[in-house]
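ligand=heme C
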Amino acid sequence: MTLSTLTRSLPLLWVFATLPSSFGFSTGPPALRAGVPGDAAGVTCTACHRSFALNPDTLGKVTVTAATYQPGVKQTIKVRVEHPEGKRWGFEITARTATNDQIQAGSFAANADIRVVCGTGPLPCNGGLEFATHTQPSTRPGTANGVEWEIEWTPPSTDVGDVVFYVAGNAADNSSSNVGDRIYNSQLRVKAGGACSLTKKPTLRSLSNAASFGTTLAPNAMASVFGLDFQVAGNSRIAGSGDFVNGAFPKQLGCVAVEIAGQRAPVTYVQNDQINFQVPTIAQTGPVPVSIILNPGQPNELKSDAGTVTMAAYSPGFFTFNGKSIAATSADGRTLLSAAGVVPGGVPAKPGDVVVLYGTGFGFSEPVYQSGEIVAGQAKLRDAYTISVGGTLLTAADILYAGLAPGSISGLYQLNVRLPQSLADGDIPVVVTMGGVASPATATIPVKR
Ligand code: HEC
């Protein structure tokens, strides 16, 4: 996987992709107005649309339609607002666990008709409170009687028990003001169907380190398994913090689990022919069994034929933007380092710069983090290593930090190093060597004076 596929599941690196938050009205109401009792505002649209009391009559209403949910399986829910006098329409919906209305359940997808906003801060909501609302075009000015929106909702990947949808709707008078509009609200409680229902026996073909693509895996390294029938064709799942179990990445995602040396691995992404996961925290080396398990723990569980993968203490490799240019940032994390055109805004490094390089497979850290955990602070590499840049071995003084990336999954490692002053312009290979194993020298950092 490249860093861009990895970052979709890594909270820290989401800083690369912040979106401006907008504050419009008919363009989409503010968050926290879906009428959830525990939400700070605790109110609906009547906070501003005050001509009538909430739910002023029985001629109008807002309804939600949603089915029993299968953990991790996307479904289309429907919101309908109606009133015989309405001429323009709006809504806001959110989904929460039935046991605690301050815990978001799953996530919504935005499109031309649906806008998604977080309770606080910009998208993505990272498992925090999330709301879907109308967009300006989907207020359908001039439409009589009522309108319906379709919203894609992906439930949490694990069974979180019953989920409650809270919705508020506006049957407006099309006056382009907040006067003369009728606001309604309602709730819908849905159960977890629980059952995973994948039907084909999965085929396991190969495994590789997600950064170096080497076939030897190391403890806690990010890795991929390739094969067939891991998901229904066309379906994919990215683990988000809404999927976390006890604060860590889940050991099954989209009804798929990976078992290595008898241990379940945290899964970050699945699609029909690929699973991205983190190798369990095991010191064992040599060949170990691996298998893919669908519908894990259920009567309809399906297991691939067992394969074998070789474990080693280290399998160092750098993530790259494009297979070559190392996933790297400036020391303050604000600028991506790449040759022109490789990533938007990417610039080459200069000799003598401090740069941050991302990789995986560098072995155990101190303190040790378990596979799937999020790194709380600094955790340096436990074992000896060397780093060479353009053939020059870096001295300890030029290695500012070598360890896990704070705020990320425990399989993402970062090296903060000062580039030699003597570097010539060009794509300069960076190589990490641990226990005699070197990372591929095809990974380079562009340097230009
Ligand atoms: C913070 C105040 C505020 C809140 C809360 C608010 N609105 Fe509004 N809304 C406005 C204002 C002001 C307008 C008129 C300006 C505009 O259309 O942008 C408006 C206009 C609208 C319109 C167009 C009305 C028309 O007659 O043309 C719709 C539809 C709408 N809001 C939906 C909602 C919904 C649904 C909610 C609750 C989920 C909501 N609004 C909550 C302030 C608010």
